[in-house]
Amino acid sequence: MRTADLIQFNLHLLLRQWFRTLMILLATAVGVAAVLLLTGLGEGARRFVLDEFSLLGQDTLILLPGRKETTGGLPPLTGEGTRDITLDDVDALSRLPGIEMVAPLIVGNAQVYVGGRNREIVTLGTSARFFELRQLSMQQGQALPDIPLQQAGAVCVIGPEVRRELFGTQRALGEWIRVGDRRFRVIGIVEDRGESLGMDVSNQVILPVASAQQIFNTQGMFRVLLKVRAGASIERSRERVIELMQQRHGGERDVTLITQDALLGAFTDILGLLTLSVAAIAAISLVVAGILIMNITLISVSQRTAEIGLLKALGASAALVRLLFISEALMLSAFGALIGIISGYALLWLGHSIWPQFPVTVPLWALSGSLIIALGVATLFAWLPASRAARLAPVQALKGEVHDA
Amino acid sequence: MIVLEQLCKTYHLGGESVHALDHLDLQIAAGDYLSVMGPSGSGKSTLLNMLGLLDTPDSGHYRLEQQEMSALGEEQRAQIRNHKIGFVFQAYHLIDRLNARENIELPLILTGVPPRERRTRVDELLERLGLSRHAAHHPHQLSGGQRQRVAIARAVIRRPALLLADEPTGNLDSHSGAEVIGLLEELNGEGITLLVVTHDPAMGKRARRQLWMQDGQLISDTRNRDSGDPDANR
Ligand SMILES: Nc1ncnc2c1ncn2[C@@H]1O[C@H](COP(=O)(O)OP(=O)(O)OP(=O)(O)O)[C@@H](O)[C@H]1O
Ligand SMILES: [Mg+2]
Predict the structure, then answer these.
(1) B118-128: per-residue pLDDT in tens?
(2) Is the CB of residue A200 less than 8 Å from the CB of residue A162?
(3) Which atom of ligand 1 approaches the CA of B9 most closely?
(4) Residue A309 C-alpha to ligand 2 middle, in angstroms?
């Protein structure tokens, strides 16, 4: 039988029983779309995290107040410490051997005013080191000046997004803005690197750390970023940092030091779990589709017994009869998978257009895997009923009796 | 053309065995026209199914065009059914979802004949059987006589050597029944060996050779006098 004829023959059948066709298409499509959607999101999350931390680099340590690493779960990201990490601590840390540079970090939301406009903007308090550490380049002007940490300068650097929002097309460099109740002169605008959110400075205002301390009325650092000197052991430096902090905090270990590896490891664990549950959901929906296909093929075989007998009388071999039923199931699940792929990608695309920072890519293994599973399940589950049809003896089948030969 | 030797088929129903075919011997010459009659349950359909390779005998031999059929596997039997044998059933056995043309070309589709060749062959046949107007009609849009003619077209689209009809007029009124028989006889006139099972004695008499069955055995085998020498074309 020619492939085109086979497809047309099956199409006749599928269109005639459009309701059951629709149900199977739906089940298969849901299964395939679920796989694409969830792996797409999972992979997106993984890339997102990787992107974020790759900015910092392997040799960067993050110090935060509070000690929470004993649980073995996610490292603390909120950081309500018992004792503050002060600017003096930061100075002491920067004198440690093996540490190349240290950047303090205070983060908060502040009301920012320019002329008549005002916006609530994420405000960072840090030092010139931060620009080196994050390798931020300037679109205009310059980075924060290299002044003592304790000195509150009246200058700021803003992200390109902030510039657009506050100044529109007007000149921003050299203008004054008010953050909270203090005035700062814009001395630089950061280059837009199109980075993802969270660590993205494009919609942030960056102030000298001492100024931020005053605005937010706080002494303690939110984070301290430490860069290990090239060639120095990360592990040794880590121990030195912990020791120093313990010593300075009266013998108490009340800080957490995380490395990129540790953080990524934790994320990878979570994402692995996510991927596993995705696989489970997908497997379940595809097996449901498979069982539907089996039932419906069984029903189809018994309803079409006389037709099978006729086809055999007209010269269809057992192999051809089996092929007819299996190809029907295969066509169904291929269509369903196609619909699933289209809708899965459409939803991912929709998500991406709503939240552009989030990278959505479906890994190839998920795409091909879900397709193979959908088709495999269809073949597997249609095989039994199809073989049953193939075995029917022509005489009995013509009388419409279902007996296994 | 056809030689049956000591063909047996026994069914077992609740401890009782029914000899549907009981050591049956039969020879059929190519191009002949036979009718098979007999009381209900005498084995007429069973005989037809054996000849059409729809059923397998318990013992005995069946040679079709010098080829031993009992030895063949299912695939080869399917091939022979497709190429050499046409069936016409009492219940038409048309596929409802396909129109007349699609039903007729089914045997060609099954063996992968290309669409263009199919089209010319079906068109030709539709024309000849006066069915051209109904090519796009589905079985439920056709009368019984028209359905049976579509079924006959399907049976002969392959130009088989042997045409088997099991009570082809059983579901038809006398007028369309006569039409159907006329058509079958016309096909026989073109050289197709025709075997018709019927309960209608008038119809049975029209055949050149008339078989009478009872309890799985041939009890009479007569030939119309005007049909010439019985052994002429064996
Ligand atoms: N599948 C079967 N199982 C059991 N017995 C069967 C089967 N098929 C046929 N028979 C029996 O074999 C015998 C011959 O049946 P067959 O159908 O050949 O009769 P027939 O001459 O065609 O009768 P009718 O004129 O009623 O069609 C009958 O007694 C019937 O009951
Ligand atoms: Mg019968």
Answers:
(1) 999 999 999 98
(2) no
(3) 12
(4) 16
For residues A31-52, give the mean pLDDT: 77
Rounded-to-5 percentages of helix, strand, coil across chain A: 55, 15, 30
Q: pTM for the whole thing?
A: 0.69
Q: Determine the structural domain holding residue A310 and report its residue range.
A: 3-52+265-398
Determine the Cα–Cα distance for residues A109 and A180; give it in Å rounded to an integer: 10
Residues with C-beta atoms within 5 A of ion ligand 2:
B 45
Q: For residue B167, give the ligand 1 atom closest to its CA.
A: 27
Number of domains in chain A: 2
From chain A, the residues in CB contact with B75 under 8 A are 317-319
Task: Return d(Cα A158, Cα A180) in angstroms, integer.
Answer: 15
Are A314 and B54 in contact (CB < 8 Å)?
A: no
What confidence score (pLDDT) does residue A362 get? 80
C-alpha torsion angle, residues B46, B50, B52, B54 (rounded to 10): 80
Lowest mean pLDDT among A32-46, A130-144, A335-349, B138-152: A32-46
DSSP label of B12: E
Asked if B150 and B134 count as a contact pair (C-beta separation under 8 A), the reply is: yes
Q: Which of B93, B117, B140 is the mutation pick for testing A, counting most A CBs within 10 A?
A: B93
* Residue reference for tokens 């609530």: A120
Per-domain boundaries in chain B: 1-64+161-225, 95-158
Chain A residue closest in CA terms to B104: A314
Residues of chain B with Cβ-Cβ distance to A394 below 8 Å are 54-55
In a shared domain, residues A125 and A249: yes
Are B11 and B20 a contacting pair, CB within 8 Å? Answer: yes
On whether both A216 and A362 belong to a single domain, the answer is no
> Does residue A160 share a domain with residue A45?
no
SS3 (DSSP) at B114: coil
Residue A47 located in a structural domain: yes
Please name which of A375, A381, A332, A379 lies closest in space to residue A25, comparing C-alpha atoms.
A332
Measured in Å, residue B50 CA sits from the centre of ligand 2 at: 13
Lowest-confidence segment of A31-45, A379-393, B17-31 by average pLDDT: A31-45
Residue environment code for B152-185, b if the CB has 16+ CB neighbours within 10 A, otherwise e: bbbbbbbebbbbbbbbbbebbeeebbebbbebbe
Same domain for A97 and A156, yes or no, is yes
Closest Cα to atom 5, ligand 1: which residue?
Answer: B11
Pocket of ligand 1 from Cβ distances under 6 Å: B 11, 13, 18, 20, 38, 40-46
Does residue A312 sit within a domain?
yes
Q: Are residues A31 and A129 in the same domain?
A: no
Q: Which fold has domain B1-64+161-225?
A: Rossmann fold (3.40.50)
SS3 helix, strand, coil % of chain B, rounded to 5? 35, 30, 35
Is the Cβ pair B49, A9 closer than 8 Å? no
Report the C-alpha gap between B104 and B121 in whole angstroms. Answer: 10
d(CA B152, CA B154): 5
Which of A32-46, A90-104, B116-130 is least confident?
A: A32-46
Return d(Cα A202, Cα A191) in angstroms, integer: 8
Q: Whose CA is nearest to atom 6 of ligand 1?
A: B11
pLDDT for A251 beyond 90: no
Same domain flag for A277 and A157: no
Complex prediction ipTM: 0.90
